Amino acid sequence: MVQGELFPLRDLHEPLRGYRGTVASRVAGITYRQLDYWARKRIVVPSIAPSSGSGSRRLYAFRDVVILSVSKKLLDIGVNLQNVTNAVEYLMRQPSDRLEHMTILCDGQQVEECVEGEQMAQMLSRGEAVFGVSVGALWHRIDDALATEEHVEVTDAAVIDRSLPVNRLAADRLRETLDKRRVQREAMASAAAVGAVSPTLADVDPSAAHQPILSQGTLS
Fold first, then answer.
1. Are residues 150 and 171 in the same domain?
2. Residues 128, 134, 138, 139: what is their CA dihedral angle, to the nearest 10 degrees?
3. Which residues pair with 17 in a beta bridge?
């Protein structure tokens, strides 16, 4: 469970720079295989140009890379994947300047934003080990690391609006996939119909229907 007030996702003045998956995974400290798995399972999906096929490339925004790094930290200290996913959904809705000053607490099960000292005391009172993850510290480390990395300048239209619920985004993608398949089926059906009505040799020359077909072996 992740607690805290939701804030608008998009930063109006955030530079729109996209980073390839190889850069994002290296800077976040995860393997490319992890990155690909998280993207396919929609745990951490790139905000810019999500991959839609073997020929396309994912582009990760700065905030995505920060959240990838936070996710790795949470997994490293034993937080289960479901709670990491919940934390990701919460962090994805925060503007970058808020992430810069954020600290989250976790006891291996729950993940909470630390907004006052009493929260730390409450978690400690449960008798469980409590870990703090400074999102702000990771924010600055990622910011420094990406400063010298290759990036792609993108337009505002290329950025996904993550204020939409995750299930809404999934539904939209499923609808797009089904539409593509429908178009492909219609194209195949049209091609088959054209082939079915194409004139045969017998249609053009009826006498040809009664002429024997010579094989190569009968030619002298």
1. no
2. 140
3. 153
Residue 48 is part of which domain span?
17-163
What's the angle, vertex CA 106, arms to CA 133 and CA 73, rounded to 5? 45
Beta bridge partners of 104: 113, 133
Q: Report the CATH number at residue 85.
A: 1.10.1660.10
One domain, residues 172 and 83: no
pLDDT for 108-154, tens place per residue? 677 778 876 676 677 667 767 777 889 999 999 999 999 999 988 87
- The verdict on residue 217 lying in a domain is no
CA distance 46 to 1: 23
Q: What does the alpha-carbon distance between residue 102 and residue 136 come to, in Å, rounded to a whole number? A: 5
Stretch (H or E) spanning 194: helix 166-197
Cα dihedral: 186, 187, 193, 197 (round 10)? 150
- Average pLDDT over the chain, rounded to an integer: 73
- Strand-pairing partners, residue 85, are none
Q: Is residue 212 part of a domain?
A: no
Q: How far apart are CA 141 and CA 167, in angstroms?
A: 32
Stated pTM of the model: 0.61
